[in-house]
Amino acid sequence: MNELLKLVHGVVNWGMDTAESMNAGVLIDASVFYALMWVSVLAALGVVLCRNVVHSALLLTASFIGVGCLYIYMDSPFIGAVQFLVYGGAVAILIVMALMLTRRDDMAHSNLSRSLFCQAGAAVISGAFFLCISVASLMTQFREMSAELGDSVTGLADMMLTKYILPFEVAAVLLLIAMIGALVIAKGAHES
Amino acid sequence: MMDIFSLSAVDILNWSVHIGLTHFLLLAALLFSIGLYGLLTRRGIIPTLMCVELMLNAANINLVAFNHYRPVTDFSGQLMAVFSIAVAASEVAIGIALAFRIYRERGSVNIDELNHMKG
Lengths: 192, 119
Prior knowledge:
The complex is a heterodimer of chains A (about 190) and B (about 120).
Chain A: H1 2-21, H2 24-49, H3 53-73, H4 77-101, H5 116-139, H6 152-161, H7 165-187
Helix pairs in contact in A: 2-3, 3-4
Chain B: H1 9-17, H2 21-41, H3 45-69, H4 76-106
């Protein structure tokens, strides 16, 4: 009887300790993170495993939107907005357009994968990569401290137009070159 | 270095509830591995491009997470993510233009058939 009481006491103490270390804010924080994480990871798995390439493209958009929500979770609303506009908007539409322009006869089996042997090799390589990175990041003790940085849009604009003005201009030129290059490649330079 | 073999259940529960930098690094590693698997197994050009986009996204998560959870004084990480997104956007535009061109010339978007430059 005494031992049973001691066991119950231990369990209750464990529960109290656990409950003390958590509060509603932390729990809500964690559940938001895990919900967004599962959205982006499951959608990414769908991209890789779907047989129909149109489904893959739509799931890719879902994964992008999940990642964009994670940026907003990390107090980076500007990057989140850029992610929604560029990835969730432009890249998704580009990919779906390209799928429509290069259509095959049978959409249901349009997303072919290689042989089973090749798939096993790819699974081993990517699994080993994931294992390496996760062990490295679990073993490293980061000195975490969320610094108060203020408004991210103002800060980014200041940096873009002062210290990082040259990369900013180079990125603008790169986008222009990419646009002209894409037009020339898709249309054909010698055709009128 | 953290001793991961002597952790109790309470520690693990605590760790999994207090979201920190490590969680984001693990998420990014998972997304990158999924993209890598797709890159190695898909046979079409456009599915391959989609997997490259997934991997670029994972790298961007790392940049923003380090900027948020490390004691930094400015937004350099987020700025790098903006530039990375710009480069990724131009990469996908060029890649899709190439895919379209190859489809028009060959009538196929299977990478295994693109072996004209093989020696």
